[in-house]
From TrEMBL:
Its main location: membrane. It is found in: Cell membrane. It is a multi-pass membrane protein. This is Putative proline/betaine transporter. SUPFAM superfamilies: MFS general substrate transporter (SSF103473). It comes from Streptomyces olivoverticillatus. Pfam families: MFS_1 (PF07690).
Amino acid sequence: MGQHWKKIWVGSAGNMVEWFDWFVYAVFATYFADAFFPKGNDTANLMKTAGIFAVGFFMRPVGGWLLGRVGDRRGRKAALTLTVTLMSASAVLIAAAPTYAVAGYGGVAVLLVARLLQGLSVGGEYAASATYLTEASAPGRRGFASSFQYVSMTAGQILGLGLQIVLQHTLTNAQLHAWGWRIPFAVGAVGAAVVFYLRRNMLETEAYEESGTAADDRGTIRALLQHKREALLVVALTMGGTVAYYTYTTYLTNYLSHSAGMPKPTASLVSFFALIVFACLQPLAGALSDRIGRRPLLITFAVGATFLTVPIMTWLRHAGSFWPALGLSVLGLAIVTGYTSINACVKAELFPTGIRALGVALPYALATALFGGTAEYVALWFKNAGIESGYYWYVAGCAAVSLVVYLTMRETRDIDLKQVGREPAGEAEPDRVPAS
């Protein structure tokens, strides 16, 4: 048990820093959007900054392919070390990027390169950490152990919001817009350097070390094409979950500030405390899935997101004060927990060891690029067009598509990770282990 927890801790700590760097771009965008573009319409500048945020998502499939291949051919440890190196470089670039007043659109170019590097890094980080945490856990505890991926992701967001709250109370609004927004990226670069050291000394998973997959087949597109059904299932699994997740996390602060009319510090506090509750829910839901299965949680999420997104987002817009906004935000995140707490292990459970990292990485990255990465931009597009409520229906529709998939997919809880894919195609299902 001690070795399992050590692997979970190291994998989660790195994931936390990765997502801190990724998330602070979104929560501090409202402060640095005008720094890189000519003065003008605030919403338009925020849309341009959100567009660059979305570009990072479109590099995620490339990162998913590249780092997924590294994870399957060189090991989970090698992939996780490389992801944090790329993230550190991107954080340094953003922290030092020149503004429009200094370098014109040269600052935008630096920002764009940094987001491309972040996209490469996160594209591989999700799958590498999902695979690592799933393989490192004891049989019958995979749901609980892999839930720490979103605990660590959320912890990164909480740290980012916490730092924003501290800066909002220690710096003036003018200082935050002028130079204070650079601080979180400098902090992220330092954190990434610490994680690089931790990951160089992390332990490889037993499932990877004992894998009998031929070296030439590890992490190749050819091998992935032998599992097309599972790859398409990952895309469908991700569609509704990633849109809902980014709506209630990344976009929430800007939504409360720009649409609900809340002061920025109040909006940040709502997101901060809602995310703390969300993080605490992850291991509870993960452990529940180890007892009752993955499908019941996924179905609960999809039903809730399909039928409750429109009323929750509508009520949030008219919440008016801290407590109603917090209650509605927690409700939305509680619904999303049915997806976030177990999606990592569900996807990893679909693939054999030799193709697991790439099998999770590439289709997941494609789905998040199409749906998660564009969520904030789509939301702002609807707002700019004067039909903001259209975005609520968009989120509900994506969840409805995923609901159909959850209702028809097989249960993966009891699959033996070391046996997945070893039986001849079309014959018996993978050997199973008792749930505990």
